[in-house]
Each structure stands twice: as C-alpha cells, then as structure tokens.
C-alpha cells in the first residue's frame, strides 16, 4: 500500500462522510412536534376561526353554528368541543384532537374543526 | 509474433472465464447484509488484471464479456440487474484504466478502490435512468461505504497475487511486458 493509496482512501472516506451528511443531514432535524399547527373551525363550509396551537396555552371560545352556539376548548396543541346545542352531542364525544388531519364534526350545527399542518408520513413506497 | 498473439487470446479468454466464474459465484453467495447491491466485487479483480496486463481495450472487452456471460449463466440477461452490472463494470473499467495509464503512484489497492467507486457511480447512473428518478443518489453513501472496503480487499488480493508471481501469474507476466510496482 503506497502513500498515494492512503491519501486516496482518506479522501474517499471523507467524501463518503460529506456526501452522507449532505444527503441525509436534512432528515435528521425535522422535529415533527415543533412544526406550527393550526386548528381551523368552519361553519357551513365557511371558515369561522383559525387558532394557533402552541403548547402551554389555554383558551375557549364559542362558535355559532346552524342550530345554536357551541363551545370549543383549546388546551395547548389539542382541541375539543365541550358544549353543543344538539341532543346527541356526538361532537363532544369525539374528544380531543391534536394531529394534523384529525377533525371534530358537528352535523346539526354544520361545524367542523380540523387540525392543519404537515402530516407525518406513515410510509413511502416506490 | 503470431505465437504471441495466440497466447494473448488464450490468456484473455481465461480471464473472461475466471471473471465469469467469480461473478456467478459471487451472485450465488449472498453476503449476510440486509443491503441490496453490496457485493465483494471479486470479478472486478479480473478486469483490473486484464487492464494491467493488456491495457484498456482488452480490459474493457474482458469486463463486457464477463458481465454478458455471467448474466446468461444466471438467467438475468437484459434484466435491470444486468444493466446495473454492465454500467458498473464500464464505470469501474474506465476509472481504473485512466488511473493505470496516467498515474504511477497508486498500487492495485488504490486503483481497485477507485474502480469500486467508479462501479458505484456507473450503477447509480444506470439506476437513475431505469427508474427515471434522481432520488437514487441517496443510495450513494451506502454504496461508497461498502465499495471502499471491498475495493481495498480485492486490490490487496491482487497486489499479493502479482507480488508472488506464482503459477499462472508468472506466465501472465512473461506474456506481457507491462509492469507496475505493486
């Protein structure tokens, strides 16, 4: 093994590390939970409210649906319906939602709460 | 003169046969790693030997014939795997021939490692054409990380073989005036 071989070996290893860092580096720092998420409340298809879901915040508000006012509670990054004017209260039973794409739906009031944000991928197939 | 030519033809044929055998055996012996595409590259030794003894044209011929014959034996002729093997063989042959002709500071180890990298580059180029996607470049570090040690290993083996000049290799050497420190 000559000196040039050793230099080549070192250069190739360095190149491998650099290329690995350049190609894979951006996959390492994607803190999924740190991405900003928003809850969007729509009434009869129109957007009524948009709430930032930041950890540690608490709030509640009232949405006027088709059959009366409904109360929504926000606790950090999760949202739920706490009061509804209907008898069934299905939306209340749906409980907390926190992940992008999840929804709480109130059929009689035509209210929908939906979490927006980049959905994490389950898998990628090729 | 004529005898020389016949001798060359016979040795090249033997190199093709050796390369084919190594290629096929290597395809049967699976390396116990869950990574596709990682191979020892033993057949590349034969390409390098042919390049070393007879130069670029004969080396490339040996490499192309070896890949074609081995794919016929394995029943993979014209399959995607065959295209990858072919482009890899061409890539490594080009890189190794360049280094053999234009440098004198590398031993077979360095040339073999560079050839392994050329093999990976050729393979990825073909894979990106077959898959119509540049995303295969993400496989490059994996291939490099496996190619460098296997290139080192095959280069080391070839170095030893050439140094000892025993058996058939002694004949190879008398058959060719080309010499290179190993």
Give an overview of the whole structure.
The complex is a heterodimer of chains A (126) and B (182). Chain A is an alpha+beta fold and 126 residues long. Chain A has 2 domains: 1-30; 32-116, Sandwich (mini-chromosome maintenance (MCM) complex, domain 2), CATH 2.60.320.10. In chain A, 24% of the residues lie in helices and 36% in strands. Chain A contains 2 helices and 7 strands. Chain A has helices at residues 3-28, 90-93, and strands at residues 37-43, 46-53, 58-64, 69-75, 78-83, 103-106, 111-116. Chain B has a single domain, classed as Arp2/3 complex 21 kDa subunit ARPC3. The radius of gyration of chain B is 16 Å and the shape is globular. In chain B, helix 4 packs antiparallel against helix 5 (108-131) and helix 5 (108-131) runs antiparallel to helix 6. Chain B starts with a helix and ends in a 7-residue tail after the last helix. The mean pLDDT of chain B is 86. Chain B contains 7 helices and no strands. Chain B has 182 residues and is mainly α. Classes of the chains: A alpha+beta (126), B mainly alpha (182). At the A-B interface, helix 1 of A face helix 5 and helix 6 of B.
Radius of gyration of chain B: 16 Å
Largest interface, chains and sizes = A-B, 16 and 21 residues
H/E element order of chain B: HHHHHHH
Beginning-to-end CA distance, first to last residue of chain A = 42 Å
Largest sheet of chain A: 4 strands, antiparallel
Give the domain tally of chain B: 1
Tell how many strands the DSSP assignment of chain A holds: 7
Total count of strands of chain B? 0
In terms of DSSP E residues, the strand content of chain A is 35-45%
Overall pLDDT of chain A: 84
């Amino acid at each position: 093994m000559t000196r040039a071989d050793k230099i080549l070996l070192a250069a190739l290893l360095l190149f491998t590390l650099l290329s690995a860092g350049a190609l894979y580096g951006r996959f390492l720092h994607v803190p999924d939970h740190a991405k900003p998420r928003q809850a969007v409340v729509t009434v009869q298809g129109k957007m009524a409210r948009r709430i930032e879901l930041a950890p540690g915040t608490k709030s509640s508000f009232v949405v006027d649906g088709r059959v009366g006012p409904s109360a929504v509670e926000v606790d950090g990054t999760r949202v739920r319906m706490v009061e509804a004017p209907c008898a069934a209260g299905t939306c209340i039973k749906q409980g907390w939602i926190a992940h992008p794409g999840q929804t709480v739906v109130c059929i009689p009031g035509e209210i929908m709460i939906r979490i927006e944000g980049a959905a994490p991928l389950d898998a990628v197939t090729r | 003169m004529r005898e020389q030519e016949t001798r060359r033809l016979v040795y090249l044929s033997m190199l093709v046969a050796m390369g084919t055998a190594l290629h096929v055996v290597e395809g049967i012996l699976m390396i116990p790693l869950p990574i596709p595409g990682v191979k020892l590259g033993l057949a590349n030794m034969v390409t390098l030997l042919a390049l070393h003894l007879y130069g670029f044209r004969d080396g490339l011929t040996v490499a192309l014939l070896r890949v074609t014959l081995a794919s016929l034996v394995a029943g993979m002729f014209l399959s995607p795997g065959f295209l990858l093997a072919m482009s890899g063989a061409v890539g490594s042959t080009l890189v190794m021939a360049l280094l053999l002709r234009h440098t004198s500071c590398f031993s077979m180890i360095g040339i073999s490692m560079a050839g392994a990298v050329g093999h990976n580059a050729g393979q990825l180029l073909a894979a990106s054409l077959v898959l119509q996607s540049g995303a295969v470049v993400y496989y490059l570090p994996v291939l490099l990380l496996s190619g460098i040690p296997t290139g080192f290993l095959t280069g080391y083996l070839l170095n030893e073989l050439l140094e000892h000049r025993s058996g058939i290799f002694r004949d190879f050497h008398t058959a060719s005036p080309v010499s290179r420190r190993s």
